[in-house]
Specification:
Blueprint (H helix, E strand, L loop, with lengths): L7 E6 L10 H15 L5 E5 L3 E6 L4 H8 L5 E10 L3 H11 L7 E8 L8 H15 L4 E2 L6 E7 L4 E4 L3 E5 L8 E5 L5 H11 L3 E8 L6 H15 L5 E7 L1 H10 L5 H19 L4 E3 L12 H8 L6 E2 L7 H10 L3 H4 L21 H8 L4 H10 L2 E5 L10
Parallel strand pairs: 5-6, 5-7, 10-11, 10-13, 11-12, 13-14
Antiparallel strand pairs: 1-3, 1-4, 2-3, 4-8, 4-9, 7-8, 12-15
Helix pairs in contact: 3-4, 7-8, 8-9, 8-13
């Protein structure tokens, strides 16, 4: 976009991205592209270098831009900074202009002088500006340990940036730097949180929903669509793969030992996920399994279920307790949707006494009672793909 003339910018710090050495440019360019995509429809201009990114904006768009970038992974912190010429007179004049809009009792000044050509050393700049603030602001004092306000002065090669009130971003890696993973998205609390945490590590996700109509409802599907939309806040596009699981689940219910039904069902889901990951050129399976939470999530059960695939399986919430998971669900605004009373296929056929320590040979014996290879191939051929968008007109099956 065309450069916007103004003296304030949003200054973005990368944090963890600066540890990437030779790959740093890839991570920064991905973040740059993600920000561009998220800010579509607004007036802005972005400049980037290896340690900072700067967004120029129109005043009326500031709050909207800040709200959007607060949902972009790869940003360690951000602030609104004053962009000025790199000379001490300009720094002093701008500090004096900023002071009337600030309210504090204690402060300190921190100066970073990246441009070593600047004739005054960092500590001397801090002392000089600190003295100016004390002279022009009544009833305040310096506190170098626990100040209410920190005046940051960054003297860089092109401009100097003055800012305070720095805000934490959501950190992590930019989505897309680690490729595609497919998330087993049920209507529960755990799997959307697992998807969010996977995206935080740079994984671009697609969502897979196992549907068993008429045993599950269209309301249950809509619930998963709405969860997918919440996850869309953190990446630029998202496909929802709707798996017609009814025939296979009914076969398991009719022919398999009831205590092993959940184990067999999960093994079938993993087989389907294995095929989908390969078909859509993804890299990993992601799910919301949490150790010990239900019968299929004991370590013994996980080992028996997981054995049907050689693909890596990521379980981001595996070692969190339920309250920790709920805290994240509330933070990303999925909790109220997840607690709507519409059952998914994992809950409609739950036996009274599911096995918690299944035996591998018994699981194989039970699943061989059904022609699952034929049924799985039929399922793969009939999967519906929904392109999830914040724009309702694009929420159509493709």
């Amino acid at each position: 976009m065309e450069k916007i003339e103004m003296n304030r910018v949003i200054l973005i710090k990368y944090g963890e991205l600066t540890t990437k050495k030779d790959n740093r440019k890839i991570f920064i360019n991905t973040l740059y592209n993600n920000i561009n995509n998220k800010l579509k429809g607004l007036a802005f201009y972005i400049e980037k270098d290896l340690s900072r990114m700067y967004i120029e904006f129109r005043d009326e768009d500031l709050n909207e831009i800040l709200e959007r970038i607060n949902k972009i992974f790869g940003i360690y912190s951000y602030t609104v900074a004053y962009k000025i010429e790199s000379d001490i007179t300009s720094i002093e004049e701008n500090i004096l202009n900023i002071l009337p809009s600030t309210n504090f009792k204690t402060f300190k000044v921190e100066t970073k002088r990246s441009d070593k050509r600047f004739p005054i050393e960092s500590l001397d700049v801090s002392k000089r500006i600190g003295g100016l603030i004390l002279k022009n602001k009544k009833d305040i004092k310096v506190d170098v340990h626990h100040p209410e306000t920190i005046f940051h002065i960054e003297i860089r090669n092109d401009y100097t940036y003055i800012y305070f009130n720095e805000y934490k971003g959501i950190g992590g890696y930019p989505v897309g730097t680690q490729g595609l993973g497919l998330l087993m998205l049920s209507g529960g609390i755990d799997s959307p949180v697992a998807g969010y945490l996977a995206m935080k590590r740079g994984i671009n996700i697609g969502c897979v929903y196992f549907e068993a109509i008429p045993h599950t409802s269209l309301e249950a599907r809509e619930k998963v669509i709405n969860l997918s939309k919440k996850l869309l806040n953190y990446q630029n596009n998202l496909n929802l793969y709707i798996v017609p699981f009814t025939k296979l689940q009914e076969e398991i219910y009719k022919k398999c030992d009831p205590s092993y039904m959940i184990t067999i069902m999960r093994r079938m889901m993993y087989r389907i996920m294995d095929k989908l990951v390969k078909k859509y050129h993804a890299h990993v399976i992601i799910n919301g399994e949490c150790i010990g939470q239900v019968a299929s999530q004991t370590l013994t059960s996980m080992a028996v279920i997981n054995s049907v695939t050689n693909l890596p399986v990521i379980r981001p919430v595996a070692c969190l307790d339920k309250l920790e998971i709920i805290d994240i669900a509330e933070k990303i605004d999925t909790f109220n949707i997840s607690t709507l009373p519409y059952e998914d296929c994992c809950t409609v056929f739950v036996p009274k006494h599911p096995v918690i320590n299944p035996k591998m040979d018994k699981a194989i014996l039970e699943e061989n009672k059904i022609d699952y290879e034929t049924l799985i191939n039929e399922i793969i051929d009939n999967i519906n793909i929904m392109k999830i968008s914040n724009n309702e007109e694009f929420n159509d099956l493709i």
